[in-house]
Each structure stands twice: as structure tokens, then as C-alpha cells.
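User: Study the shape:
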Amino acid sequence: MKIAIISVSDKGKELASIIKEKLDDDSTVIKVDSYHKNVKKYFPILFYEYDAIIAIMASGILIRSIAPLIESKVTDPAVLNIDDNGNFVISMLSGHLGGANKLTKKIAGLIDAEPVITTSTDVNKKLGIDVLSQDLYLSIDNTKEILFFNKAILDGKKLTFTVNPDRNFDYLFDYLKNITLEMDVLFEYSNDVDADEIHVALDGHEIILKEKKIVVGIGCRRGKEYEKILDAFTKSISQLNIHKSRVSMLASAEIKKDEEGILKLSQNLNVPVNFVEIDKLKLFESSDVAKSEFVYSKFGIYGVCEPSALITAGFDSKLIYKKTSYGGVTISVALSK
């Protein structure tokens, strides 16, 4: 997630600095930028350049600033509102699809504030269909049906989930078993459903949830033990709450194609690994990729795990876990559009 923090007072600026420092250490936060004052100038830029905006200011200023920019719950960024004293963190916009509710709880925990969330499913301890899709990195084919399904969930109706019997859906079963929110579900199996889809139906209405590609990029020192690579892989996806059965592919550079630890991980997970050609890595450009002069001096490329993951995930993919080191192993995670 790319986050912008904007403040208007000196006290708010101090709070912004505290929040930024804490978020900079979070591997699931790709970058954090701070802005101060000039809200009329900055908001039209922030609204389209960032996944989330944390506004430390009076709610009236925030509402008037974003009102002309709001378009759709599908595309609008998450917007949070915090008072100057850091007493309350309020989820203002895109609570589910944009991730504002989840981010609100995270930020509140970081600054010891009270999270304020008002979406109906959350306050009634129900699992919204859009929350499920975001938590499991699934796209929704018909977002106009979200309201119908969430209202049905609030009314306690049972949804039918139809999946392909040949696909391992342990990630879905474990999620529904462990989530503290309620959703009544009946499972059916059909070979007519694509392996990467979940069809949700009720009373003639249907939503198709489709798996986005999750690619785990791996870099490592020569001859790194399988156990060390597995440990790094497990820790990274755990921070994202990603079940191992949900990972689509592994990725690394072609210079690592004979690394036994990576090959063994691929085999044991039954997940393919893509070794990206050096020429592609040399040509790849992204402002989100961390550049290593050490790696460049040895291989002529600025990185392995991040660009390999992004290239493998496909055009317009994004990092959801930035390069993180685990004792000679580096891990990143990319998500397809």
C-alpha cells in the first residue's frame, strides 16, 4: 500500500512524522509520503497517486476537500481522518474495497487511538462479501451486486459458494473458519466453474470472485538452505495473512535457476517458479523497486526479488510486500491487477 499523510497544523505535522516513522518499518507498506498544508493543491494529486490518504485535520476540511474527487467505491482510495491530538482514527472513505477499515485499526494501534468504523456489516459483526474479496485478494466481476449480497448477509441469509473440485481452496475454508465475523455459506462443486473462480449466488443474483495472481519473489545467497528460504517465505506471507495454497507462483532471476532451496520450495508447495531473464530485469523500471548497488556490482541488475515478482505478476501489477531480508534471503510479494 502506498500511503500519503497530509496535515494542516504544527501539532498535526508532528503526529504525521510519528505515524510515518512507524509505517516506514512495515513491510506491507510500500512507501509513505508526508504533505503539509496546501490541501487544495495536494488532494487532487494524492487522490489518484496513492492507495490511502491519512488526513490529520478537522473532518469539515477533509470532507470539503475530497467531495469533488469522489467517483466510486471501486476506484476511490482509502481515506482516514485523525484529529490533531491523535485521539480518534476515523475510516471515512472506501472502508472495504479500499482497505480503509483495516488501515484504521492498524493506525489506531500504532498511536494508541480509538478506531472509528461505521460500515453496517462491521458494526453488526458480519463478513461483507467485499471484505472477503479484499482479504483473499480476489477481484469482483460485478461490483453493483455488492450491496445486494451485503444486505443479504446482514439479514442472515445463506450464500451458495460454487468452486471447482480440482482446485485447492484450503485458503478459503481456513479463512471462513477462523474469521470472527459471521457469514452463512453453503459449498457446492462444479467442473463448469473455472479453477481460479468462486461463484457466489443467492435468489438469482451472482457475483464471481476471481483470484488475482500472487507472486512471491525470492532472492538469496548462493547455496542458501531450503529451511532458511522456507522460513522467510512463511514469515512474509503470514504478515499478509496469505495462506500458502493461495500463492500463485514463485519468482527469481535466471541466475538462481539452479538454487536447490528455491527449487525444493517450488516442488514442496506445488507452485511453479519463474526464473526471469537477466535482460528483462535490466530493462525493468519501477519507482517502487529498491535498488541495491551490491547486487548491481555482481550481476548488473539492481534487484532480484522485487522486479522478478512484478514482471511475473504481469503488466500493471503492484508490490504488496516490499523487499525484506531474512538472514541471506530476500522476499517480496507482487499482486496482479
Notes: The mean pLDDT is 95.
